[in-house]
Specification:
6 helices; about 5% strand; about 140 residues; mainly alpha; two-stranded antiparallel sheet; 2 strands
């Protein structure tokens, strides 16, 4: 949001995708995802002691609740219009989730629960969605 430059002819250059992907919101999203997975691991171990099998959907819920903070901060700090940024981020989240689920289900074949493929796709898609949100809100600041 501060890395934009005027190229002299009135056009504004945005940050590259490389700098967006290594930005603080994306990195903190990944770290919060790992913390959410650790929390889910503890819940799964306690549940396993009582005969409850691990559930990939609960893992996705736990992780997304833990990792939503950076995206909420980006949205709160962004200037209007923010709708396009949110639509683009949700679209990226859905597409990357489905592509990741297809790849994971293909790689794991019939040995795994189909929910595991969706979990893998979703875990990859959350930071991508935050990066798209950051990139589009960066462009909203330029306008």
């Amino acid at each position: 949001m501060g890395d934009e430059e005027d190229s002299g002819n009135g056009s504004i250059r945005r940050r590259s995708w490389g700098t967006v992907m290594s930005s603080e919101p994306v990195v903190s999203t990944v770290l919060l995802e790992l913390a959410g997975l650790a929390l889910y691991g503890v819940v799964a171990l306690v549940g396993w002691l009582f005969g409850w099998p691990p559930d990939p959907h609960l893992a996705a819920l736990t992780t997304s609740i833990a990792a939503v903070g950076p995206a909420a901060e980006l949205y709160r700090e962004g200037r209007p219009p923010r709708r396009l940024a949110v639509v683009a981020a949700l679209l990226a989240l859905a597409v990357v989730t489905l592509l990741g689920a297809a790849a994971a289900n293909w790689a794991l074949a019939p040995a795994a629960d189909p929910g595991v493929g969706l979990l893998v796709g979703y875990l990859v898609a959350i930071p991508v969605g935050v990066a798209v949100l950051a990139r589009f809100l960066d462009g909203a600041d330029a306008a």
